[in-house]
Automatic annotation (TrEMBL):
Protein name, entry field: SDR family oxidoreductase
PANTHER family: DEHYDROGENASE/REDUCTASE SDR FAMILY MEMBER 11, DEHYDROGENASE_REDUCTASE SDR FAMILY MEMBER 11
UniProt-listed SUPFAM superfamilies: NAD(P)-binding Rossmann-fold domains (SSF51735)
Pfam families cross-referenced by the UniProt entry: adh_short (PF00106)
UniProt family annotation: Belongs to the short-chain dehydrogenases/reductases (SDR) family.
Length: 240
């Protein structure tokens, strides 16, 4: 392949799907991972390996990467996009929802990093792009555990960026505001969901997954000696 392999988690919809389409159009072979493999295969993108993988399963994650590398060469970029948002009040929310978010949003991200980082360091080349959120920079009502996971994403990304900078490996945080995706549908509290939708309407609409895909492509396509450490983007009228 003339271009390097990119791995995208949570690629079956939203930001992951838009990013897959964008980077495929730019000529990259892709490993697309999600729980809904039918949605991945329906994209019908060229030079793509689709695998049904839950990012909390570290062994399955690593096995899929090895399979893709055998076909397309080493992973040059990992985009940790898979995530869940389960909003709720701290005194009411089922703790099982907190565990789900930390398992997917934090441990799933670390599983991906663990699968690719040693080889990137050895090659002195590679990029990891972690999809966080504005909720990883400030708090919001009913977001306690979700914000905790996204603050963790910011901290993990910056910490490892410092660790591997001398190995010429880049770590990048993408922090979107509200995006029109399926993320809100994961929340089980109807009152909170209605309030969130009202907030979105109040700003005249939110940004599209394609906007995030464009930012990811921009950051990745920079020369390897340039690391755009963080991109924060949201609708102009979003407050905060």
């Amino acid at each position: 392949m003339s271009k390097s392999l990119i791995v995208i988690t949570g690629a079956s919809s939203g930001i992951g799907e838009a990013t897959a389409r964008k980077l495929s159009a730019e000529g990259h072979p892709l490993l697309l991972l999600a729980r809904r493999i039918d949605r991945l295969e329906a994209l019908q993108l060229p030079n793509v390996l689709c695998r049904q993988v839950d990012v909390t399963d570290a062994d399955a994650f690593a096995a899929a990467i090895k399979e893709a590398e055998a076909q397309f060469g080493p992973v040059d970029c990992l985009i940790n996009n898979a995530g869940v948002m389960l909003l709720g009040l701290a005194h009411e929310q089922d703790p099982a929802e907190w565990k789900t978010m930390f398992d997917v949003n934090v441990m799933g991200l670390l599983n991906g990093i663990h699968a690719v980082l040693a080889d990137m360091k050895a090659r002195q080349h590679g990029t990891v792009i972690n999809i966080s959120s504005v909720a990883g920079r400030k708090t919001f009502p009913s977001h306690a555990a979700y914000c905790g996971t996204k603050f963790a994403v910011h901290a993990i990304t910056e910490n490892i960026r410092e660790e591997v900078a001398d190995d010429n490996v880049r770590f990048i945080t993408i922090a979107p505001g509200a995006v029109e995706t399926e993320l809100l549908s994961h929340t089980t509290n109807d009152e909170i969901k209605a309030g969130y939708e009202e907030w979105k309407d109040g700003m005249g609409g939110v940004i599209a997954p394609q906007d995030i895909a464009n930012a990811i492509s921009f950051a990745y396509q920079q020369p390897q000696n340039l690391c755009i450490r963080e991109i924060v983007l949201a609708a102009t009228r979003q407050q905060p």
